[in-house]
Design goal:
The complex is a heterodimer. By secondary structure, chain A is α/β, with parallel strands linked by helices. Chain A contains 12 helices and 9 strands. In chain A, the strands form 2 sheets. Chain A has a 5-stranded parallel beta sheet with strand order 7-6-5-8-9. Chain A has a 4-stranded parallel beta sheet with strand order 2-1-3-4, sandwiched between helices. By secondary structure, chain B is α/β, with parallel strands linked by helices. Chain B contains 11 helices and 19 strands. The chains are: A alpha/beta, B alpha/beta.
């Protein structure tokens, strides 16, 4: 694996390697010194063309815990806001010697372009591109589910919300199906792509029908503004039909968990009671995000695909 | 004026004969012709002589975007592609919506001398879609405009479209519609279907094209004018036009070379050279437009040659400009997609790329005439057995955005004559 651009590029073995590596990394979080020397002397650039404080600090924490040098580059206040092109930004990073580039961009395919353009030689990690993919989010979601549910083989996972515009949904459907889960996406018909025949999942317009047989349910952020483009009539109607409240949550099997990639619209797609309930693993997702990103950076940049040596800290 | 004798060429893919050009005209076609002693002889053995190609849809970018193309560079590219006439689209800066701008473009074409340039006038002021441009003034100008289009944007307002169609009846004009329902294509990036959903690119649904085509055919039937459909790209559009023609409704339509050959899966690379409007469609659509072109439902091939400077394509997909160059590859692509597949003959190609576009553009007195004694010597000599690999940097166009980069295509333009004067000889520009 040279880059991480799409969750669909990961074989089952690749995915398991990342998840297993993340498990090792996760154990670090419980220790007083949360640092490994693995990427000492390597430079990781967080290239964020869209505001996303959560994802950026998650990658930043991950790179720093692996002792990499981290440079944060955000479009606001930088030369990008003065009209510099993606190409010139990439050439600049290349000239500075970036070993890894973590890219968040509003245009679908931008990380793909960075990886294939020849503009830079470093490994490219897609940290969310337009309405395309967000593979590390899917990995951390799978990681979180695996910690609660064990193997995802045959597990029934329901993803609810604005699938049409969601990079989280795309990456999750691809990864979870690779891991053997049975995935159902639920949304109003307006928020599903018009043709989903090639997607390895079921689709449904009926949340209540899907909940009773779900081992995990993932609520996606829905932007209120979508109603201005007539994707749904009102926020209230959306919540009534597709929001997860305590009554709906009661339909879930006993062990089922609730996920959300954040940031949440409390009261819109998820009620505050559900978000704060014992089924909710939303805060845990954030913790796991750092472990997953450590695993990805480690595997891409350390020049080896073996699991990391954590002896220094376990000794 | 010097004379030329082309020997042993297949005339429009049929009989093999010699062809004598003198004084800007085809003097004779036959065997054992009496050529003047100073005539230049061109060996036409194995080659096909075609009437000079006519492109009803070219973006020459001048005035305004001379960094992408000029009338001179665009017509040089046209000559290399076998074209003797091109219709220059109106979306320049300033927009070709006044007699002054269309006359400027027309004059630049005359000065360039590589191909005749016929300006297309904008339908609405500034192509804004709100107020009719002075269509009559453009029609009566030295440029003698007969085709009007807001191409790049759709004349989406049904009432305005109706008025435009009605108004041009006074001087026999044609409205060429860029069929794209704007509300259905807000932010659209590629064909809407399974692939757009996977790639996370906003879809440009077929219905956004088809609904406008259907509406405009009915509007035109109501007012009895001339409607031309630009760059038709979907199976549904072919079916609508076919049904309309069967009912005897007046409409003409064009398809681009790229829609005859390329499909949406090219977009998987996120390489913006494949970003075009209308977007590349599916295999089914490609088969349908080929069939439509072969059976005459689609009247003509038009290039929609849309040059863009490097920086407008060397960027992320959503920031990139729509459009592909096509003048220098059109004939090869049509040979590849239509002739080598036995869907059409060379005579059909002459019809779709010369006679009919000239007729729709109302320039049949000058272009698009069958090769015969007495006709203006606008012709192209093609080597159908030739082959070339497309290299963007070798183009005569100022721009490099060819989607056929690296593809090996059949056919080679050996010579192009504009009114008896060679613009291309031995596959190279004569000056």
């Amino acid at each position: 694996m040279r880059h991480l651009l799409s969750a669909g590029d990961l074989s089952r073995d690749d995915a398991h390697l990342i998840l297993d590596t993340a498990e090792e990394m996760r154990s670090l979080a419980d220790r007083p010194i949360k640092k490994l020397p693995a990427l000492r002397g390597r430079t990781v650039v967080n290239l964020f063309f869209e505001d996303s404080t959560r994802t950026r600090i998650s990658f930043e924490a991950a790179a720093k815990r692996l002792s990499a040098d981290v440079i944060n580059f955000s479009a606001k206040g930088s030369s990008v806001s003065k009209g510099e092109s993606l190409k010139d930004t990439a050439l600049t990073l290349q000239a500075m010697g970036a070993d890894g580039v973590v890219c968040r961009h509003g245009s679908s395919g931008a990380p793909h372009l960075l990886a294939n353009s020849g503009w830079l030689t470093g490994a490219v990690v897609n940290a969310g591109d337009g309405t395309h993919e967000h593979p590390t989010q899917a990995l951390l979601d799978a990681f979180t589910m695996r910690r609660h549910l064990g193997s995802l083989e045959g597990r029934r996972i329901t993803i609810v919300g604005d699938v049409l515009h969601s990079r989280v949904a795309r990456s999750n459907v691809l990864l979870l199906s690779t891991l053997g889960a049975d995935v159902t996406v639920v949304a109003p018909p307006t928020l599903l792509p018009v043709d989903m025949t090639t997607w390895p999942c079921e689709t449904s317009y009926d949340l209540d029908a899907a909940l009773a047989k779900s081992d995990a349910v993932m609520m996606l952020r829905v932007q209120r503004e979508r109603m201005n483009d007539a994707f749904f009539p009102s926020a209230r109607e959306y919540t009534r039909r597709y929001g997860l409240d305590v009554h709906r949550m009661a339909q879930l099997p006993d062990e089922a968990i609730v996920l959300h990639p954040g940031p949440m619209n409390r009261g819109m797609e998820i009620s505050a009671e559900v978000a704060d309930s014992t089924r909710s693993v939303i805060v845990e997702q954030v913790t796991n995000g750092v472990a997953i990103r450590m695993a990805v950076l480690y595997l891409l940049l350390s020049g080896t695909s073996e699991t990391p040596n954590t002896e220094e800290t376990t000794a | 004026m010097s004379s030329y004798l082309i020997t042993g060429a297949s005339i429009v893919g049929g009989e093999v004969a010699d062809l004598l050009i003198d004084n800007g005209e085809i003097v004779a076609i036959g065997n054992d012709l009496d050529a003047p002693a100073d005539a230049t002889t061109i060996d036409g053995t194995g080659k096909i002589a075609l009437p000079g190609l006519v492109d009803l849809h070219t973006h020459l970018r001048e005035p305004g975007r001379e960094d992408a193309e000029t009338v001179l560079t665009g017509t040089r590219a046209a000559a290399l592609g076998g074209f003797t006439a091109v219709f220059a689209m109106a979306n320049t800066e300033p927009v070709a919506d006044t007699a002054g701008v269309v006359e400027q473009v027309w004059r630049l074409g005359r000065e360039a001398g590589y191909a005749d340039v016929y300006p297309i006038g904008a339908v609405t002021v500034g192509r804004q879609g709100t107020q009719l441009a002075e269509l009559g003034a453009m029609a009566e100008s030295a440029a003698r405009v007969r085709v009007f289009s807001d191409d790049g944007d759709c004349v989406w307002d049904a009432a305005l479209m109706r008025r435009a169609l009605e108004y041009v009846k006074a001087f026999g004009g044609t409205i060429a519609q860029h069929a794209q329902e704007p509300r259905l294509t807000q932010g659209a990036q590629m064909n809407e279907g399974a692939l757009s959903g996977v790639l996370g690119l906003t879809g440009w649904p077929s219905v956004a094209e088809e609904s406008i085509i259907a509406r405009d055919i009915l509007l035109n039937a109501h007012v009895g004018s001339k409607l031309h459909i630009c760059h038709l790209s979907t199976k549904g559009s072919v079916e609508i036009v076919r049904a309309a023609k069967r009912r005897g409704l007046e409409v003409t339509a064009e398809v681009t070379p790229h829609h005859l050959l390329l499909t949406e899966d090219k977009v998987e690379s996120y390489n913006p050279v494949y970003k075009v409007n209308p977007p590349l469609r599916t295999k089914e659509d490609v088969e349908a437009v080929r069939e439509g072109l072969a059976d005459g439902t689609i009247d003509i091939v038009a290039t929609d040659h849309a040059p863009h400077p490097v920086e407008d394509k060397d960027c992320e997909w959503s920031a990139a400009a729509f459009g592909m160059t096509g003048l220098e590859t059109a004939l090869s692509v049509v040979q590849h997609a239509m002739i080598d597949t036995k869907l059409m003959t060379w005579a059909d190609l002459a019809d779709r790329m010369s006679y009919r576009p000239a007729a729709i553009g109302q320039v049949s007195g000058e272009h698009g005439q069958p090769l015969a004694a007495g006709a203006p010597a606008n012709l192209v000599l093609v080597d159908p057995a030739g082959e070339r690999t497309v290299v963007p940097s070798e183009t005569a166009s100022l721009s490099r955005n060819t989607p056929f980069d690296g593809m090996t295509l059949p056919g080679r333009v050996v010579a192009t004559f504009l009114r008896g004067k060679p613009t291309v000889l031995d596959g190279k520009l004569t000056r």
